[in-house]
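Two proteins follow. First one:
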Amino acid sequence: ADVNLQTKTGWIPMHFAVNTGLLELVELLNSHGGRADIVNEWMKTPLDSAKERKNEEMLEILKRRPRSMPF
């Protein structure tokens, strides 16, 4: 399955995980190539949302990208 598949409004699973505060899901998506740099209909990335929420633990997970993956 494509962990970065977008809805019609540009949301990806990582947007939903970050916006609902599901750390374990963010970790799982991140480990399977979930991106934090895809914008949704509001021109926000999952990383933007984590920053707005000042969720340091989530930010650390999102910044922990395998070197072979873009960010």
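Second one, unrelated to the first:
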Amino acid sequence: RIGVSFSSIIDELVTLRLYDASGRLVIEEKAVPNAVSYTLDQLHLPTGVYVLAVQIGEGEIKAYKLLSDGN
């Protein structure tokens, strides 16, 4: 499970892309959260390093490095 928090309520399209350490796209999810947070569930990621890219509307893509312990 990955939780994403925003500084204000997001009522436009959010694109979330999760990449593994080799740059392979693991999951892409698009949603309009209408909230200050959003959760990616049921990922079942192997242990490793991942990059989460978050784009709100047509805005700048922000990337975050994540570590998974396999749980």
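SUMMARY FIELD: The mean pLDDT is 92. Residues 58 and 64 are 18 Å apart (CA to CA).
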